[in-house]
Amino acid sequence: MAEAQSTGAAAGGAVAVAADSTVATRMSAPPSFDVADFPVPHGREEEWRFTPLERLRGLHDGTATADGSVKVEVDAPEGVTVRTVGRDDPRIGRAGKPVDRVAAQAFSSVEKATVVSVPAETVLTEPVRVGLHGEGGVTFGHTVFEIGAFAEAVLVLDHTGDTVRAANVEFQIGDGAKVTVVSVQDWDDTAVHCSQHSVLVGRDARYRSVVVTFGGDVVRLHPRVSYAGPGGEAELYGLYFTDRGQHQEHRLFVDHDAPNCRSHVAYKGALQGERAHAVWIGDVLIRAAATGTDTYELNRNLVLTDGTRVDSVPNLEIETGEIQGAGHASATGRFEDEQLFYLMARGIPADEARRLVVRGFFAELIQQIGVPDVEERLIAKLDAELGASIA
């Protein structure tokens, strides 16, 4: 695959330093819980220009009302608490407020939120699993994951079924904590899912997320990371398989607002079928106060058939030259027949050779999940997607 839009900066090298902060360009209005603070998008705004608004089923313009239901199951190890709280709970919004109209609509449409708390210094030996199964109609949600200082936890969020859903999910990571989040979007083909993931990484804490998107008619996820103190680390991995007619959009924003923090982003996608559309936006901002920052973001896309579309836009804004390193890269390429022929020449059937090539493309990201049953399920799902295309 040919590299595209690749730039970088390292300590001692040339860096692009912004004269003034342009944080305001990353959102149409300041963050707010009030939906009235956001105008109805028309599709020409930078943050909405790739999104098929007509397929959001009213989530963006206020016409969608909560008339559906979801079945939520939480499997929490001993010591973890799960509570239902009102919107006025002081923990709500601590990791970040809504930054667009859909996220604000989600908040305005719920009366209660779910708070999942892992106490300080607790080391969980089993994941916290949250399963959400859509049962039709429009639904909204707000969930807060509160991880205490020096705790260690794995969180698995599993989305299945059919619904039109807008939600806010917060991850509040205490100082010195280590957290892995696996979010799986395995919706039915008719589902719509828009969600803002707001992450606040504590001092010397480590946050790792793996986002996996297979299903849904339209999926639009918006992870946003900021730092509560120096020494924080964030690793954001993503895997998506965009099939015929699907729109899958991942919009990331890492806000380096504290010194000596690190971020690493790597998303990979495969596309097949007419009108399959994948969008990846990777925004990284290094503020003037964030000296010693080390960051890199990567997006790669593998095109398996004709008729697909990829929009990949990495953005890096640096307001200080005192950093460890910064760079980004984006690449989109077709399935390479040479690899297929190489395997077939060694007696491997064509369909199996195709699976092996695509599995290899995703292998390093699947290994980041670290939950064996989830890894096995996703490999099986990947094989099923490829099998459908071969059939």
UniProtKB/TrEMBL annotation:
Q: Which InterPro entries match?
A: Fe-S_cluster_assembly_SufBD, SUF_FeS_clus_asmbl_SufBD_core, SUF_FeS_clus_asmbl_SufBD_sf, SUF_FeS_clus_asmbl_SufD
| Domain SUF system FeS cluster assembly SufBD core span(s) in chain numbering | 134-361
Q: Which domain of life is it from?
A: Bacteria
The text of the family note is: Belongs to the iron-sulfur cluster assembly SufBD family.
Name of the protein in its database record: Fe-S cluster assembly protein SufD
Q: Which organism is it from?
A: Streptomyces boetiae
Species classification: Bacteria, Bacillati, Actinomycetota, Actinomycetes, Kitasatosporales
Q: Which gene encodes it?
A: sufD
